[in-house]
């Protein structure tokens, strides 16, 4: 069976037996909860291992040159985390991450709290909030080394959601499908306006699959103007 241990080996990520147990328990909890709450369309264990776990973890080898996962106590927020992807897999594999999970649906946050307790994760916080409201919270704004998002939205919208959380000098990393040239072009203004610079686009072929991924790395070079993020819903209706 092509499970998380199989894909971690292909990715060059060393997982302990206890980490593999955490992944398996997490998977089982998502699949079970999915019977009563929409968390994922993927319930086959092998497909789950590839499209949720391996996909989430692929950032580690893809961004190896940045050394972001070798830093002690690196702080990360997953904006619009949903069922916890990509951040919980990253946290399991890199326990040094000080993680915050933010989502707008309280039922998802309660589920994630149950996961955190069940698989015994430490150094992790959950927050029930819309991205725009959290980005204006003084306890969260300019507070993280890294913001990640695997959410489905255009890059200019995601940048408005996520960059306010990042410290100057930190990174916003967006998980994207590989063909993003047009999206990058249309996001240039938003990235600059929000205090960021496009640092890199890392193309990555997911191990033993035909799935291609692009990681967009946006470096925060100056504070995000106080006007951003705008009121909830505005970024989608009127993208920068």
Q: What can you see in these coordinates?
A:
- With 240 residues, the chain is an alpha/beta fold.
- Helix content is 38%, strand content 22%.
- It has a seven-stranded mixed β-sheet with strand order 3-2-1-4-5-7-6, sandwiched between helices.
- Strand 6 and strand 7 form a beta hairpin.
- The radius of gyration is 17 Å and the shape is globular.
- It starts with a helix and ends with a helix.
- The model has no long low-confidence stretch (mean pLDDT 94).
Poorly predicted parts: none
The tally of strands reads: 7
Q: What is the radius of gyration computed over CA atoms, rounded to a whole number of angstroms?
A: 17 Å
Helix content: 25-40%
Portion in strands: 15-25%
Task: Please tally the helical runs, counting DSSP H or I stretches of 4 or more residues.
Answer: 10
Structural class: alpha/beta
Spatial strand arrangement across the major sheet: 3-2-1-4-5-7-6
Main sheet record: 7 strands, mixed
Compute the separation of the termini in Å.
45 Å
> What is the N-to-C order of secondary-structure elements (H for helix, E for strand)?
HHHHEHEHEHEHEHEEH
Q: What overall geometry do the principal axes of the alpha carbons give?
A: globular
**Whole-number average pLDDT?**
94
What are its keywords?
single chain; 240 residues; alpha/beta; seven-stranded mixed sheet; 10 helices; 38% helix; 22% strand; globular
